[in-house]
Design brief:
The complex is a heterotrimer.
Chain A: H1 2-35, H2 51-58, H3 61-93, H4 96-109, H5 113-124, H6 129-138, H7 149-173, H8 177-185, H9 190-201, H10 203-218, H11 222-227, H12 235-243, H13 249-273, H14 276-279
Helix pairs in contact in A: 1-13, 2-13, 3-7, 3-10, 7-10, 8-9, 10-13, 12-13
Chain B: H1 5-33, H2 50-57, H3 59-92, H4 98-110, H5 113-127, H6 133-157, H7 161-169, H8 174-203, H9 206-211, H10 218-227, H11 233-262
Helix pairs in contact in B: 1-11, 2-11, 3-6, 3-8, 4-6, 6-8, 7-8, 8-11, 10-11
Chain C: E1 9-18, E2 21-31, E3 36-40, H1 47-55, E4 62-67, E5 70-71, E6 82-85, H2 97-107, H3 112-125, H4 142-155, E7 160-164, H5 172-189, E8 192-197, H6 200-206, E9 209-214, E10 217-222, H7 224-229, H8 234-239, E11 244-248, E12 257-258, H9 260-266, E13 271-275, E14 281-282, E15 291-303, E16 306-313, E17 318-324, E18 336-341, E19 346-350, H10 351-356
Parallel strand pairs in C: 3-8, 3-9, 6-7, 7-8
Antiparallel strand pairs in C: 1-2, 1-4, 4-5, 9-10, 11-13, 12-15, 13-19, 14-18, 15-16, 15-18, 16-17
Helix pairs in contact in C: 2-3, 2-4, 3-4
The chains are: A mainly alpha, B mainly alpha, C alpha+beta.
Membrane topology (chain A): Multi-pass membrane protein
Keywords (chain A): Cell membrane, Membrane, Transmembrane, Transmembrane helix, Transport
Family (chain A): Belongs to the binding-protein-dependent transport system permease family. CysTW subfamily.
Chain lengths: 284, 266, 357
C-alpha cells in the first residue's frame, strides 16, 4: 500500500507541478535574468551589468516600495481591528448568520475588483451616491474624498477584507470554549480573556490573515489607479509602467525582483511555518 | 459566560453593516446602470433600461463575452482535472515530496498578479508565442489551478483512506478504484472547484491584461473604459458580469442543496 | 463539621427551565463547610446544569444560591470566590505548567517572584516534581495534567472547589489512584469539595455525603453507607449497584420463604424488599435464615475473588447472588441453589416512599 501511495502521489502531483514549473518558476527565472541586463534591451544576450538595480536605488523607486509596504501594513492593522469582532461572532456567537455572512462575503470575491472599486468611485465622487443625495437633501455639497493617499488604504481595506476575515474566524474557532470559561471562572475579565487566551490561541489565524492581507496588498495596484488617482504610485504600478510605457524590461524586471524578494520572503516564511495538514483537518 | 443578547444583537448588526459596506459600491453601479442620463450624477432623475438594450445588442460586448466565456470555460474544465489529481497528491497520498509540493502550490496564490502577468508576457515572448485568448488561459491557470487544487483538497482531507484500500482488497484495479470510489467521493469538491475556477477567471483582470494580446475580456474592456473616460455602458456591462456570477453562485448553491435533499442515504 | 454549624453553601428552590424542558425542579441543598459532597446521577439528570449554575456559567430561572450568607447567583463567574476543575481540565495549551498554575495569581496582580514560589509549593502539594514548572502542557501525561489542573484551582484559593467529572477520561487504574489522592488532598486542604460524577464508585470512595439526582431533583442525600443500606427508592437502590427486588404485599412476598421472626416483623407491611447480591449466603438443604430463596443456576460470572450467579426461582423471577470463590456452587450452571440472608440485610422501601419519587 505504501509503495502504491508513493507512486500515485508522485504521478498525480506531476501535471500541476510540471505546469507550474513551466508557467510560474520559469517566467520568474526569466524576470530574474532580465533584471541583470543593461537597461532597455529586449534579449538576454547582453553581458549582465546590474545597472537596472542601480537605477532602482538612484531614481527614488524605493519610495514606491516603502509606500506600498507602509500602506499594506496600515491596511493589515486596520483590517485586524475591523475583522476581529466579526470573526469572533462567526466563530463563537452566530449560528445560521455565519453561513449568510460567509456566502455574502465570498460572493464579493467573484466580482471583478475593478467593478467594485469603480463602484466606490461612483459612490464617493462629487455628484456620486453619497454626495449627490447629501446635497439633494441638505443643499450642502462637499468635495469627493477621492484621489489621495488615505482612500488607497481604504480601497485596500475594502478589497482584502475577506482575506483577513476568514483566517481570523478559523483561528478563533480553534480557541477551546473550555479554556475561555476556565479563565473566566478563575477570575479573568473579558479584556484579560482576550489578552491571555483568545489572542495567543488564535495566533495561527491572525498570522495567516495578516500575512495574506499584507502580501496581497503590497502587490496591489488597482486601488491606487482607480480610487487614488495615482496620488501614490505603488511598486506594482511602477513595474507595469517600466514594462509598458517605459519599454525598459530590465528596469521593470529589477523592480519586479525587489517586490518578489519582499513578498517571497514573507510568503515562504509563513508557508514554511504553516502545517497545512493540521489546518485543513487531514485525517491521520 | 454566554454572550448576552445585547452583544449578540450588536455583533449581528455589525455583520450586516460589513455586508452593506461590501455591497454598497455594487448598489452604486446598479443604480448607475439604470440611469437614463449620459453623464451620471446622483440623485438619478430618470431611470431607463436602455443601456442594457444597447449592451446586449452591441457587437463589441458580444465579442468580449465570447472571449471571456471561452477563457473561463477552458479554465474551468482544466482546473477541475488538474485540481482533482493535484488534490489527491496534496491531501490524500503519503509520498516523499508532499510537503514541498504543498508549499510550491501555495506560492502562485500569494504572488502579485500584475507581476505574474508581465513575467508571463516576457516568457511567451521569449518562446515566440503570440499572446491571444489562448495564452490568457495559461495565465489564468497559473493562479486558478492551485486554488482549485486547494478547494478539492478540503474534500480530499476528509477522505477515509480505508475506502480505497477496501476497493482494492475486493479486487478493483487502479482504474476501477478511481472510477468507483475516488471520483464519486471527491465529486462535490471537484464541482465546487469548477465553480470557483469559472468565477475567478470570469472576473480576473490583472492576469488578462498582459496575456490576452489583441483579444480582450470583459474586465479588461471595463478597466480601459473606466480609466479613459466614462462610458454609460460601463455600469451596465459591469452589472451584467456581476449578474452572471450571482446566477452561477446561487445556481450552484441551489444545486448542492437539492442534491443533498434528494440523496436518500445522507 | 456538625450539622449545627452554618452551611457554606445554601441552595434554595433552584429552578432551571430551557425552552420546553425543566432541567432543575426547585432544588434545595445545604453544603457543610469542609465537606466532600458528591452529586451523582445518570446523564440528563441535571447535575451538569446544576454545577454550571453554581459556578456561574449559567443563570438560574428561579431560586437563589448563598455562599456564607452572600447571595452569589447574581454574581458573574469571574467575581465568585469559587472555581471549577473542568471535565476537559481546560488547561491552557499555550502556557507552561507553571504559567497555568500561576494564572489566577497573575490576574490578581501578584508579583512574579511570589507567584512562582506559590506555584512551586503547589507542585509539592500535588506531588509533582519542581522541574515541571517550565514543562509544556503537551508533555504531561493524563494524570499529571490532572494534578496541574488541581494545582491551578488551588492557586485560586477558592471557598468551594467544584469538579465536573474530571477523572472520566482516564483509564481505570489511574482513576483509582487519583480518587485516593483527591480524597487525601481534601483532608489536607480542609476545603469544601463539590464533585459531580455519573460514577457511583467514584463518589463512594471519596465523598462524605452523596446526593443522588434524578430528572432534576435530589432523590436522596446521605452518607454512602446509608444510601447503600437504606435507599429511599428503587431508583437509588439500582443506582447503587446490582440489587434484587421482591414485592411485599401485606407481609407476604412471593418467592421468598420467611422465618417466623421475619414474618412477624414484616406483618401487614407493603413495599419493595431490596437485597444486595453479596448479602446472600449459600444455605444447605436444612439451613435456616430469616429470608431464604430456592432456584436453579442459569449463569455464572467470575468477578476476581467473588463469583456471581444468576438463578431462576420457582416463581420465574431472576435473582443475582454473589459469593466468595471458596463458596462456589458445585455443578455450576443447572445446579439447584438455596440462599438466604438475615432480615437486617434486607431493606424495605415502603410503598409511599417509592411512589413519591
Amino acid at each position: 500500500m505504501q509503495q502504491r501511495e508513493r507512486r500515485l502521489g508522485l504521478l498525480y502531483a506531476a501535471p500541476l507541478s510540471l505546469f507550474l514549473l513551466l508557467t510560474f518558476l520559469a517566467p520568474i527565472l526569466l524576470v530574474a535574468g532580465f533584471s541583470t541586463m543593461p537597461e532597455k534591451v529586449f534579449s538576454l544576450t547582453q553581458m549582465p551589468d546590474f545597472s537596472a538595480y542601480r537605477t532602482v536605488l538612484e531614481q527614488g523607486y524605493w519610495k514606491s516600495v516603502a509606500w506600498s509596504l507602509f500602506m499594506a501594513l496600515l491596511a493589515t492593522l486596520i483590517l485586524l481591528v475591523i475583522c476581529w469582532p466579526l470573526a469572533y461572532g462567526m466563530a463563537k456567537v452566530f449560528k445560521r448568520f455565519t453561513l449568510v455572512l460567509t456566502i455574502g462575503v465570498v460572493m464579493t470575491l467573484f466580482v471583478s475588483e475593478n467593478i467594485r472599486l469603480f463602484g466606490w468611485v461612483l459612490t464617493l465622487m462629487k455628484g456620486g451616491l453619497i454626495e449627490g443625495y447629501w446635497r439633494y437633501w441638505t443643499g450642502q455639497g462637499f468635495d469627493a474624498p477621492l484621489y489621495n493617499g488615505p482612500i488607497i488604504v481604504f480601497g485596500l481595506v475594502y478589497v482584502y477584507l475577506p482575506f483577513m476575515l476568514f483566517p481570523l474566524a478559523q483561528g478563533i474557532s480553534m480557541v477551546p470554549d473550555d479554556a475561555r470559561q476556565a479563565a473566566y471562572d478563575l477570575g479573568a475579565s473579558r479584556w484579560q480573556i482576550l489578552k491571555e487566551i483568545d489572542l495567543p490561541l488564535a495566533m495561527p489565524g491572525i498570522m495567516v490573515g495578516s500575512l495574506l492581507t499584507f502580501v496581497l496588498a503590497a502587490g496591489a495596484m488597482a486601488e491606487s489607479k482607480l480610487l487614488g488617482g495615482r496620488a501614490i504610485i505603488t511598486i506594482a504600478d511602477e513595474v507595469q509602467t517600466a514594462f509598458t510605457y517605459g519599454q525598459n524590461w530590465p528596469l521593470g524586471s529589477a523592480l519586479a525582483m525587489v517586490l518578489i524578494a519582499i513578498i517571497g520572503t514573507v510568503a515562504i516564511w509563513a508557508i514554511s511555518k504553516a502545517d497545512l495538514d493540521a489546518m485543513m483537518g487531514r485525517k491521520s | 459566560m454566554k454572550t448576552s443578547r445585547l452583544s449578540t444583537a450588536l455583533l449581528i448588526a455589525y455583520g450586516i453593516a460589513i455586508l452593506g459596506f461590501l455591497y454598497l459600491p455594487l448598489v452604486s453601479v446598479g443604480l448607475a446602470s439604470i440611469s437614463k442620463a449620459r453623464y451620471l450624477s446622483f440623485p438619478i432623475r430618470k431611470y431607463a433600461f436602455g443601456w442594457y438594450e444597447d449592451a446586449l445588442t452591441s457587437d463589441t460586448v458580444r465579442d468580449l463575452l465570447v472571449i471571456s466565456l471561452k477563457v473561463a470555460g477552458v479554465v474551468t474544465v482544466a482546473s477541475m482535472v488538474i485540481g482533482f489529481f493535484g488534490a489527491l497528491a496534496f491531501a490524500r497520498y503519503n509520498w516523499r515530496f508532499r510537503k514541498t509540493y504543498q508549499k510550491l502550490i501555495l506560492l502562485p496564490i500569494f504572488f502579485p498578479q500584475t507581476v505574474l502577468g508581465l513575467a508571463l508576457l516576457m516568457w511567451f515572448n521569449a518562446l515566440g508565442v503570440v499572446p491571444s485568448w489562448k495564452t490568457a488561459i495559461i495565465a489564468h491557470l497559473v493562479w486558478i489551478a492551485p486554488i482549485a487544487t486547494l478547494v478539492v483538497s478540503i474534500r480530499a482531507f476528509s477522505f477515509d483512506a480505508a475506502l480505497e484500500e477496501a476497493a482494492r482488497d475486493m479486487g478493483a484495479n487502479q482504474w476501477q478504484t478511481l472510477r468507483e470510489v475516488t471520483i464519486p467521493l471527491l465529486m462535490p469538491g471537484v464541482t465546487s472547484a469548477g465553480l470557483f475556477a469559472f468565477l475567478l477567471s470570469w472576473g480576473n483582470f490583472p492576469l488578462s491584461l498582459f496575456s490576452t494580446g489583441a483579444d480582450s475580456t470583459l474586465p479588461e474592456w471595463l478597466f480601459a473604459k473606466m480609466v479613459s473616460g466614462y462610458s454609460p455602458l460601463v455600469p451596465t456591462v459591469g452589472m451584467l458580469t456581476v449578474a452572471t456570477s450571482a446566477v452561477l453562485v446561487f445556481g450552484g448553491l441551489i444545486l448542492a442543496w437539492a442534491i443533498r435533499r434528494l440523496r436518500p442515504e445522507s | 463539621m456538625t450539622d449545627s454549624s452554618p452551611p457554606i453553601l445554601r441552595i434554595n428552590a433552584l429552578t432551571k427551565t430551557f425552552d420546553d424542558f425543566t432541567a432543575l425542579h426547585g432544588i434545595n441543598l445545604n453544603v457543610r463547610d469542609g465537606e466532600f459532597l458528591a452529586i451523582v446521577g445518570p446523564s440528563g439528570s441535571g447535575k451538569t446544569t446544576l454545577i454550571r449554575i453554581l459556578v456561574g456559567m449559567d443563570e438560574p430561572s428561579d431560586g437563589a444560591v448563598w455562599l456564607r450568607g452572600t447571595r452569589i447567583d447574581v454574581v458573574p463567574a469571574n467575581k465568585r470566590p469559587t472555581c471549577m476543575v473542568f471535565q476537559s481540565l481546560a488547561l491552557f495549551p499555550h502556557r507552561s505548567v507553571g504559567q497555568n498554575i500561576e494564572f489566577p495569581l497573575k490576574l490578581r496582580g501578584v508579583a512574579p517572584a511570589e507567584r512562582k514560589a506559590r506555584a512551586l509549593e503547589l507542585l509539592d502539594t500535588l506531588r509533582l516534581p519542581r522541574d515541571y514548572y517550565s514543562k509544556r502542557i503537551q508533555q504531561c501525561s493524563g494524570g499529571e495534567k490532572q494534578r496541574v489542573a488541581l494545582a491551578r484551582a488551588l492557586a485560586f484559593d477558592p471557598e468551594i472547589l467544584f469538579f465536573d467529572e474530571p477523572l472520566s477520561a482516564l483509564d481505570y487504574r489511574l482513576r483509582k489512584t487519583l480518587e485516593k489522592e483527591l480524597k487525601d488532598l481534601h483532608r489536607r486542604t480542609g476545603k469544601t469539595f463539590i464533585y459531580i460524577t455519573h460514577s457511583l464508585e467514584e463518589a463512594m470512595v471519596m465523598s462524605d455525603r452523596i446526593a443522588i439526582m434524578k430528572a432534576g431533583r435530589f432523590e436522596q442525600i446521605a452518607p454512602a453507607e446509608e444510601i447503600y443500606a437504606r435507599p429511599v427508592s428503587k431508583f437509588v437502590a439500582e443506582f447503587m449497584g446490582e440489587v434484587n427486588f421482591f414485592d411485599l404485599v401485606k407481609g407476604a412476598a412471593p418467592g421468598v420463604a420467611l422465618s417466623a421472626a421475619a414474618s412477624a416483623a414484616l406483618a401487614g407491611q407493603t413495599g419493595t424488599l431490596t437485597i444486595r447480591p453479596e448479602s446472600l449466603r449459600k444455605l444447605t438443604a436444612e439451613g435456616v435464615a430469616d429470608l431464604s430463596f430456592e432456584g436453579i443456576v442459569t449463569a455464572e460470572y467470575l468477578l476476581g475473588s467473588r463469583i456471581q450467579y444468576r438463578m431462576t426461582l420457582a416463581t420465574g423471577q431472576e435473582m443475582i447472588v454473589e459469593v466468595l470463590r471458596e463458596n462456589a456452587v458445585e455443578g455450576g450452571i443447572g445446579a439447584a441453589l438455596r440462599v438466604g440472608c438475615d432480615l437486617s440485610a434486607a431493606h424495605l422501601i415502603a410503598e409511599a416512599a417509592d411512589a413519591a419519587a
